[in-house]
Amino acid sequence: PGRIERKHSDKDNKPVMGTGPSAPNLAALVLSPFPSSTPLTLIFFLFFYAKRLHPKNCLGVRQFAETMMCAVLYDAANSFIHQHFVEVSMSEEFLALPLEDVLELVSRDELNVKSEEQVFEAALAWVRYDREQRGPYLPELLSSIRLPLCRPQFLSDRVQQDDLVRCCHKCRDLVDEAKDYHLMPERRPHLPAFRTRPRCCTSIAGLIYAVGGLNSAGDSLNVVEVFDPIANRWEKCHPMTTARSRVGVAVVNGLLYAIGGYDGQLRLSTVEAYNPETDTWTRVGSMNSKRSAMGTVVLDGQIYVCGGYDGNSSLNSVETYSPETDKWTVVTPMSSNRSAAGVTVFEGRIYCESALQPPHGHLAPSSRHAQQALPTRSCLPWKQDVCLRGL
Ligand SMILES: *[C@@H]1O[C@H](CO)[C@@H](O)[C@H](O)[C@H]1NC(C)=O
Ligand SMILES: *[C@@H]1O[C@H](CO)[C@@H](O)[C@H](O)[C@H]1NC(C)=O
Prior knowledge:
By secondary structure, this protein is an alpha+beta fold. The chain folds into 3 domains: about 5-195, Serine Threonine Protein Phosphatase 5, Tetratricopeptide repeat (Alpha Horseshoe), CATH 1.25.40; about 200-285, no CATH class; about 285-390, Neuraminidase, CATH 2.120.10.80. The protein is about 30% helix and about 20% strand. It contains 13 helices and 17 strands. The protein has helices at about 25-30, 40-50, 60-65, 70-85, 85-90, 90-95, 100-105, 115-130, 130-135, 140-145, 150-160, 165, 170-185, and strands at about 5-10, 15, 210, 225-230, 235, 250, 255-260, 265-275, 280-285, 295-300, 300-305, 320, 325-330, 340-345, 350-355, 370-375, 385. The protein has a 4-stranded antiparallel β-sheet, with no helix packed on it. Strands 10-11-12-13 form a 4-stranded antiparallel β-sheet, with no helix packed on it. One 2-acetamido-2-deoxy-beta-D-glucopyranose binds near residues 290, 310, 311 and 312.
């Protein structure tokens, strides 16, 4: 199922559906009235499939793209597979893959998984699907996945207890190696590097970024550094185009946004976005107001900045940024002016809590309170929520 099948009936020599209504078979039908591969049909099926990728059909579509030598569609299907690996690994198409394809897939850095344990389960499900034939491939599969990245409890309670693993000498060695990784951290450098490299190493997920800030002399910085918790190491990224302290940061769709801030002289309305895959910063749409020390959150794929300080006063204004349109829109202001507020998202609402600050002044304890908002596009008003205890 899901494979490309262009069956020809004897009578009229037109392609007909193969087994099951999978996407590639449909393509054969759709394309049949056209002479093969005119630019028009190519563009047509690109749109047709790129829009219809689904965990249940993406492996078939990738195969189809390969047969048609269509690199754009192949890449689109491939990144879809990586992005939705867990769902893909539960599909019939995945279970029917040949060994080479499974090996290739589970070796990819780009797999989007919460933990390596999901890759282990996928590999094991593939073996169990045809235990007789595939059992002997288990050692090869287990050595392609990154067992040391599984939790020790999982290695002990799940991997080691599995009957397929238990009756395979090579597999037990691999589990021991993974356990040693946890037991003797000092020997980690001796392990094959790929087996301890976290997945998705080209995306922001799993890394910590330090963006701008002040040095000890009080100068604003454009320096950006990234910390890899697995390698236990900080590295410098490409610096921002502007020095920014008290800058707002947010991550949306794999891009890291540095928003406004203070460059040492002025509060900024400019915004730039960092792409970790290319290590580059690109200017994007500017905010309507200059602000530093604002609260920044992401809700439903949109960035929200709340309040902040423009150089003269604390602000009550709130703006939202849509990465699709590259535009900042002013939405309902908060009921109070706030700078350096704590903001967070909880169950679809933005909560903003801070001391209210007079322009340069002292905190006014009596006026501290928490607020909540329903920041939908319809811009329902901010509502006062319960105050923090003890304030
Ligand atoms: C701050 O106030 C000064 C003087 O009133 C004005 O010139 C300046 O534009 C103000 N800055 C901002 C960011 O509003
Ligand atoms: C509150 O913030 C708004 C802009 O967000 C500003 O125009 C106004 O002057 C501020 N009010 C005070 C009292 O600082």
